[in-house]
Batch of 2 targets.
Target 1
Amino acid sequence: MRKKTLGGVLRQARYELSLTQRELARQVGVKASHIAYLEGGKRRPSLPLIKRIANALGLDRRELLFLSHPESKDLVGSLDRPGATKPGDSWKRFSSNRALLRRLQVTPAEFRLLRQVSLLEHVSSYQHFVFVLNSVRQAAVPNDD
Amino acid sequence: MSVSIEREALGGVIREILDASHDSAAKLSSDAASQYVSSLSQADYAAALSKQFDRRQLREVISELRRMLPALNREVFSETNLARLAKVASRFGAVLQAKPFADPKGLTLRGFYVNDRTMLRRPLVCVNTACHRVGTASAFWHEMGHHLSREIFGGHTHQLNLSLAAGYQDHLSNPDEIVADAVMVLGGYPKTVAERLFGTEGECARCDTPLLVSRAREYLRTVSGFEFPTGLSVPENLRILAAMIHVAKFRVTLLREYGI
């Protein structure tokens, strides 16, 4: 199984949001080359940059911290502890991230649909909302159909 | 079997999963994971299901489902080929979308069902193919359960149903999820298979979890070549273990309490 890396996670999340390295760099206040270095595993982001990248890409800050600074894992605890995220946290983080909602261009109808996810089950990651959103869009019919 | 002995026996399976991994971080989380699996094994399925359906009600529901899906509870739904599963979905008026969501947290999402005609021409069944293929097929049948029950019984309160690996116990208090799980469980373990594997008497019938897991492992190896633990990550193997416990306990309860 391929080992998960910070660069891989960043690149995947960036692709999912259809962002170029330049666009992401602009959002988080660094040069595009810095994003390229991070994705290539050549540099490690600072803690403030981890926070900004997590916000921009809708990723978990803890996860980015552990991937970029693996030594912090022993201090903070493991990622995959079941129940580590409180129910509702994921939805709060997703629905309050204006930049992400704007980037994803979430319509009111889509927002209502995704809100049902938060009411129905215990969602442990707000990336689930992005996955559901993208899947529904792929299957969606055009408005004029 | 006492709680402590059962935990110890389950601990053996969990240790087997951990021993197959070299991921020390995942091993650190084993205590919490073990507690999660243990709490699932302690859940009283018979009491939970009886709060939602009495014997007559659930038998009627299954009978209605079998009008649409006559093979339910008669044949093993062992198909894992996604193209063929897509044809099954299409036959019932739904669209299957199968794609990977491989992020570790993404893996907890097994699938979902959306029936929102304002956005979709046809209901959507989506499954996460980053899971083991047997898990993906199980998720398919769970989501098809939502679709079939909607077709038969009309609109759900919700237009969207999500299936998460951490939400099995929540299913027991939700009639929609119970029906969807019933389709998945009866497809995996038709009555004759369930009777042979779990019987109606003895330890299996009392939901002795380690014994149920042992029988389920052997059965899955035979019908689908599913070897457990898999070569996947520790958290994923623990999720699969949780799913095996849930399905087996659900199946035994249907057999013992409902005669299904």
Note: The longest helix of chain B spans residues 234-258.
Target 2
Amino acid sequence: MSIDRLRAVFREVFEDPQLEISPSTTALDVPAWDSFNHINLVIAIETEFNVRFKTKEIADMANVGDLVTLLRKKGTDVSW
Amino acid sequence: MTLDAATAPRVAEAAAILAASAPFMAGKIEEVVDTFGPDLALRMDATLAALFPERAQLERAVLGYAEFAVDALRLHAVFEKTGEYASKTYAAAAQEVYHSREYMMDLYLPGILLSHFLWPHHYRQREFFEAMFMPIVRRAPDKRFYDVGVGTGYFSRLMLQHDAAAEGVGIDISAAAAEFTERHIAAFGLQARHRMELRDVVLDTPDEPRPFVLSIEVLEHLDDPVTFLRSLRRILRPGGKAFITAALNAPNADHIYLYRSPLEVAGQIREAGFHVEQYQSAFAYAPRKQTRYIPEIAAFIAT
């Protein structure tokens, strides 16, 4: 599976249809990515990929690469 | 007002724990202190110091709150799309939540207790209670009360703290809630005027009516709130006052009955035989973007 589904979630949560993501993308790169939207993003990803993150996992996500790694660990086939 | 570690050290410690363990909630405690001022910080500090005196206890409580809040947000995200609570019976919720000691003690009860300070609609519910209900209690010659669905014991404790002649019975179906409440009341040295009873007030209604009845955010947990309200009416002495609240548009692991407006709750309270004297409702937050539902609490004083 390509990254398209994940990118679509980011674009919906941050209400930016042009938003691009890469493994090194962090909250600092996305103006709307504050703590409130971080949890909204996590919940939207959980819903889209039918996974569940632990609070510690949510806390430890430093960038999009970490997120993809975590999704893969949970059995989701996401690749760049 | 910025959070001051000198005057509210336990709150400052909780804020640091939250920022370290759940960075996506960093600043949440400082935000509510800024909104509601030193009164909130002092109240919360006293509660944390009494109930979670050890660092490890405070960490567990803060983490429990974070899990509780994230669970609520998860469910709300689904609720935004479906407009309905996940289908569940009272019996299933009781089994999954109220009779699960681990879930209750580690997550649910600490989560609810901290939400009384960190969720604006919960804080405003307490403000309404103290501003409008407690003066009625203070004027009454007989200040005995039932607190039905006592949960953490927070409102029982407020009754006992604010009136030295108040004397209460907490009622709950959950042994964990009873244990937590007993610990809570004892931590404030109020145990001589309060006792817990494990019972279902619908199936096993107390015989002796009392002049005051509290029931804080219980209705939304039930299949049939009107039957429950009729039981509350039976245990309220004629002329007595009840403080009854409900959560609206607020999905949670054990929320079954979906209230969409305060008037819907008021209608049920009246249907059960009460006369509604006053009410207040408060929203959890101002919407940041287009949203269909905002969690809300409606609180009623009824006779």
Note: The mean pLDDT of chain B is 95.
